[in-house]
Amino acid sequence: MSTTVRAIAFDVMDTLLTDPFRDALRAATGLTLTELSRRRRPGLWPAFERGEIDEDEFWAAFTADGIPCDPAAFHRTRRAGTGWITGMPPLLDELDGRLRRVTASNYPVWIHEVADEHLGDRLDEVIASYHLGARKPEPAFYHGLLERLELPPAAVLFVDDRAENVDGARELGISAHRFVDAATLRVWLREHGVDVVGEPVVDVELSGGDPPQCDDLGPVSGER
């Protein structure tokens, strides 16, 4: 493994864990994301992910916009639908003690609960937009990530399922991989000097179906 690589930063939803965001919002409101996009004020979800508003303010905005919502139903569905992407736990275990394993997620304050319930000791540090006050692919997110890690771009690898987030990392000189599945990620890691065991490529069906898209409403299929 190259001595310059010290850390690997992972997106969380649809990279480490399945993302039930779309189903959770529908459980809370009875509306699809397309329907919500017509009724909910722009910029609400990004503000929540950046930590500019708290959860009470987030849900209060639904009520103010005339959208009935049930936060308890949202969280029940979110928790029930979150689980590991196939092949990622053993890969993280294999990296233990070899690279600093951190998250690099667009996610609000709930990131702490997700980390406690799912990520456990497989990640060395949890970093999200909520902590940095910026969202991928904003340059401020990547600058904040590097400052937190106290590492230069060349010492960090970045993994995300969204092309625009991967491009944002590369623009700052961070080697980045668009996540498809654990097997192809292993190939990429080996190409970048990380000596991990290979395994057959296995198709992985991510939560939410089609690749997620982002807008001011929030992640169209829960991308973080």
Architecture blueprint of SSEs:
Layout: E1 7-10, H1 21-29, H2 33-39, H3 44-49, H4 55-64, H5 71-80, H6 88-95, E2 100-103, H7 111-119, H8 129-132, H9 139-149, E3 156-160, H10 163-171, E4 175-178, H11 182-191, E5 214-215, E6 218-219
Explain the overall architecture.
The protein is of the alpha/beta class. The protein has two domains: 7-18 and 84-211, HAD superfamily/HAD-like (Rossmann fold); 21-80, no CATH class. The protein has eleven helices and six strands. Strands 2-1-3-4 form a four-stranded parallel beta sheet, covered by helices on one side. The protein has a two-stranded antiparallel ribbon with strand order 5-6. Strand 5 and strand 6 form a beta hairpin. Helix 1 packs antiparallel against helix 5 (71-80). The protein starts with 6 loop residues before the first strand and ends in a 5-residue tail after the last strand.
What is the compact description of this entry?
The protein is α/β, with parallel strands linked by helices and 224 residues long.
